Amino acid sequence: MSKYALVLLSGGMDSAVALFWAAHSKQYERIDALTIDYGQSSRQELTSANYVWNEYWRRYSYPGTHMTLSYDLFPHSDSSILRGTQRYINQYDTVEQAIAGTRTDKSYIPMRNAVLASIASSFLLTQNPKGGDIVMGIRGRTGGRGFPDCTHGFAVWMTEGLSQGAGVRIKIIDPLNGGSIPTRKDTLELARAIPGCFEALRYTSSCFKGLVPPCGHCLPCLRRAQAFQELGRPDPILAKVYNV
Prior knowledge:
The protein is an alpha/beta fold. It has one domain (4-239): HUPs (Rossmann fold, 3-Layer(aba) Sandwich). The chain is 40% helix and 11% strand. It contains 9 helices and 5 strands. It has helices at residues 13-24, 44-60, 95-100, 112-127, 152-166, 184-193, 197-200, 219-231, 236-239, and strands spanning 4-8, 30-37, 66-70, 132-135, 170-173. The radius of gyration is 17 Å and the shape is globular.
C-alpha cells in the first residue's frame, strides 16, 4: 500500500474529484497537491485550484501542502489555451458538435499529460525518494473519442516508464476510471459519494476562456453541462458565483 500521494490539481472538475478521492480512500499518510502553471491563458484555473484545496483542507485536514510551479512548457505549441497565441477558442452550439470536434479542437496540446506527469514524478521523488502515487483525474477513456493521453492505457504505460526511469515504483492512479468507458456523469456520481466533494465543484473551472460564469460554448463547458444534465442536478458553479 502506498503511503504518499501527489495529486496533480489543475483547478478543473476531474482533478478536484481525484483530490477528494485520495483523502477519502484512506490509503495515504500524506497527500500533497501540485498545480503546474504551464502557460495557460486562463488564470482562473490557478485560482480555482487554490479554492478547491482550501475546501478539501477544511474537510479532511490531511498532512500535506499545495504548491504551484510555473514553467513555460510548450513554447512551440500554438494551442488556443496558451498565453500569447492568437488562435480562436473553438465554440460549439451543441455538445454533439463539441464531442465530434474533440480530436481536432485547437485547444489540444500533444503529450501534455505525459509532460505534466514527468514533472510531477520528479517533484514526488524530492518529497518521497521511496516513490509513491501520482493521482490524476484523466478519466481513463478506452474508446476512440477524446485525447489519447486521457486513457487508461496511458496511465498504465506511464506507470511503467516513470518507474523504470526513477528506479522506484511511481504509479499513476486514475480514480475516475470506474467503468469500461467512464463518463463525466460517472465522475459526478463519484463526487456525490465523497463527503464535501460535490459541493467543492462550485469552485472548479472548466471554461477555456476562464469566465465565471462559464462561456457555455467551448468544449469543456458543453461537456460539463451535459454531465450535470444527465445527472439531473444543477451545476454548483452556476449556483454560486464567487469573487476572485
